[in-house]
Amino acid sequence: MTWLSIIIAGILTYFTRMTMIALVSRDMLGDRIKAVLAYVPSAVFPAIIFPAIFINDYGSFIEMNDPKIFAAIVAIIVGYFSRNVIATILSGLISYWIILFFLL
Amino acid sequence: MLSKKQLFTRGMLDVSPHMLSVIPFGIICGAIGIELGFNPYLVYGMSIIIFGGASQIVFLQLISGGASSLIAATSVGVINSRHLLYGAVLSEYLEKLSFIKKLLISYLVVDQGFAESNKFFKKNKTEQYLHYHLIGTGSTLWICWQISTLAGIILGSFVPEELGLKFAIPLTFIAIIVQDLKKIDHVIVMLVCGISSLLFFDAPFKSYIIISPIVALIVAALILRLKE
Q1: pTM of the model
Q2: Same domain membership, residue A81 and residue A44
Q3: How many domains does chain B have?
């Protein structure tokens, strides 16, 4: 039963990936829609970022002095100026660990 | 003009920094499945059949929490519906491919691969074999995901939980969009999406993950209209 639902989930997921690529042609999207689609990364990824920072494993909001908020700000500043993915991730993780293990 | 091999390699290189978050997350995902008492083959089968990090964890948690298989499968579909938006963006660059190639390449479209290939595509529109970049990012992520979930299944959660490595996930996505903070319209769209995701966090089937992008894209459309 679980296998069957995994296969259904897999087919659903594949369709979300395939539908727009295989079944939509360029002409079906007008210039206005294409202009809006340029915002897709900015419109999608914060929905992954915000809950991962502000909501804990139990589904409630974190305190405003949580190390994750400070570490995310460090990562944003480092990422903005370095333009480097590794530096962004590491600066966030390291500042998170410093607060977690040494300052709290 | 870059060769197919050069584009493929470039894709691999462009996405490789994200392994810092993908590999720990894969290990966690495999380990969670075993901790929740699932058959190892089933936990690993998801990495091939679904191939979508967060949705795999949600699926396992829902089933082990007693939810019906229908609800679990629906949640996976809803969480992964954001790929529709990625596909709409990529379709412009992939339209010359044959139908079969489109069907095959679709399997490899995931968040970080989409983000890095889309950045590359925007700068290199004239390249003939652009899709090899997407194959490069997608297959690199695929291989790392398979190996890391397998490692988590076999070795258990050998990544100490106290390290909080799940936090690498938001960091990886911050790295993807941080340069767009230069543009005020993008900042507005990001804030709308982020705040909506917190407001709709408790909506059924984890639908905040598609509701908030839709709200943010509507705002983006309004911004574009105001600019005209």
Answers
A1: 0.95
A2: yes
A3: 2
